[in-house]
């Protein structure tokens, strides 16, 4: 059983030269941004890395010390540029070992004479946990507080769905949205005052161009619904009444 019931923060490592050279457009980070937020886990950073062991080691050591859990994507295949497992081992001061159960899986599904080329994928850091789930023949990997996932979006998505089912969610984030008809110069002083007054609430201000009905979208967010309601009410009282409106559930949301 995977337990991250105390995980409040997470980081994402997207690994691969192809991401930095426009050969492949990332999909896995985008999936995690939404999913982690829905689970009540605060995403602190996303790092895009080349297939260089030293750069991956540096990033792993930094983000694992600052976050409850880390998700990596990419670099665990059989080719010369797949270096994530080697880097994970070095980051935690471990060597790689060839796991017999992974060798068995490779030999079972690649018995056409091509199994030797896949054996690199049987080598994992000594502390690596193998997390098996129904419907796939290959496990998820967990090295300390890092979930090491493949870069192929279809496989990444299936493995993350498995992991998500084993994670106990924290209180989800609650968000309310206001729309202001004037520019950020008008909004800024009141938002600054609200930010000082409501320590448990996060405020966002996002200018929007090309609309007639509003110029700024304001978000009020927290894990505490009562704090969100109080902060929203305070803003509504301090903005000019005709300048601000809120689209509530059941009403048309500005696009």
Stretches where pLDDT falls below 50 for ≥5 residues?
A: none
The class by helix and strand makeup works out as alpha/beta
Number of domains: 2
**Largest pleated sheet:** 6 strands, mixed
How many extended strands? 12
Q: Nearest-angstrom radius of gyration?
A: 23 Å
**Separation, N- and C-terminal Cα atoms:** 41 Å
- The CATH homologous superfamily of the largest domain is termed MoaB/Mog-like domain
The rough form would be described as: elongated
Q: Do you know the CATH topology of the largest domain?
A: Molybdenum Cofactor Biosythetic Enzyme, Chain A
In helices, the fraction of residues equals 25-40%
Order of helices and strands: EHHEHEHEHEEEEHEHEEHE
In which order are the strands of the major sheet placed?
Answer: 2-1-3-8-7-6
Instruction: Calculate the mean pLDDT score and round it.
Output: 91
Work out the strand percent.
Answer: 15-25%
Multimeric state: single chain
Written description of the protein model:
The model has no long low-confidence stretch (mean pLDDT 91). The chain is α/β, with parallel strands linked by helices and 255 residues long. Helix 3 (53-66) packs across helix 4 (84-91). The chain starts with 8 loop residues before the first strand and ends in a 10-residue tail after the last strand. Strand 7 and strand 8 (146-149) form a beta hairpin. The protein is built from eight helices and twelve strands. The protein has two domains: 9-164, 3-Layer(aba) Sandwich (Molybdenum Cofactor Biosythetic Enzyme, Chain A); 174-245, 2-Layer Sandwich (Alpha-Beta Plaits).
